[in-house]
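pasting for ref
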Amino acid sequence: MIEDRKKEIFTPTLDNCLQSRDFNGLGVAHLTQAGDVEPIKELIAGGRLDLVRGDGHPNPHIKAFEAEPIDVQLRKTDEAALAGCLYPTPELLAEHGAGTSEAAPYTRALKEGAPQLSFRAFDLRALEWYR
């Protein structure tokens, strides 16, 4: 039964990311039911999902920075319950070929699970269009 519930949590989280144009996470408040803490913890521990709580950046709906290590995510879930948004891990996205057909480098990186505020170098001529 727990495996069925894990699939019910995992599938929409992955689908949301693969089909999204804004790369937002899936809020646990809209996704979870009573008793979902253990299935979500198993998905996090298994390296399938990340829980971004919004304590490192005020908006958990964007993956601003790298997700915290698995042990920290699990500890915070034990201490403060479920809160924030779920994201597929970059490893899981790579398994599904996310971003492979994307030509724009920044969009490809986001589809592959990169944080939105991570450092990126680029040719400044790319900004000329915005003048």
